[in-house]
Automatic annotation (TrEMBL):
<dbReference type="InterPro" id="IPR036591">
    <property type="entry name" value="YggU-like_sf"/>
</dbReference>
<protein>
    <recommendedName>
        <fullName>UPF0235 protein ATI61_10134</fullName>
    </recommendedName>
</protein>
<comment type="similarity">
    <text>Belongs to the UPF0235 family.</text>
</comment>
<dbReference type="InterPro" id="IPR003746">
    <property type="entry name" value="DUF167"/>
</dbReference>
<dbReference type="Pfam" id="PF02594">
    <property type="entry name" value="DUF167"/>
</dbReference>
Length: 99
């Protein structure tokens, strides 16, 4: 069964994440309340945390940054991120192994 935080959409996958900005380092913590929890070293100022999140996910999933975009949650801790050209099974395996 797929994790509740990953959803396959046509041509892409969407990840439901909750971020914790200003952490000591950027890393995947695990599942929290049905969402993928990610700690970010960046502060939530001027979009720095969002940029750090997209860059971190692109690096972890092995895709170019241009394939990763924020769908919703621009100013919220709860966000939906779209990753183009990736399957849900691959995304779940990589992000689960990153904990």
């Amino acid at each position: 069964m797929a994790a509740p935080w990953v959803k396959e959409v046509p041509g892409a996958v969407e990840l439901a994440v909750v971020v914790q900005p200003r952490a000591s380092r950027t890393r995947v913590v695990g599942e929290h309340d049905g969402l993928l929890k990610i700690q970010l070293a960046a502060p939530p100022v001027d979009g720095e945390a969002n940029a750090a999140l997209l860059e971190f996910l692109a690096k972890q999933l092995g895709v170019p940054k241009r394939q990763v975009s924020l769908v919703s949650g621009d100013t919220s801790r709860r966000k939906r991120v779209r990753v183009e050209g990736l399957g849900a099974a691959h995304a779940e395996a990589v992000m689960s192994g990153a904990t």
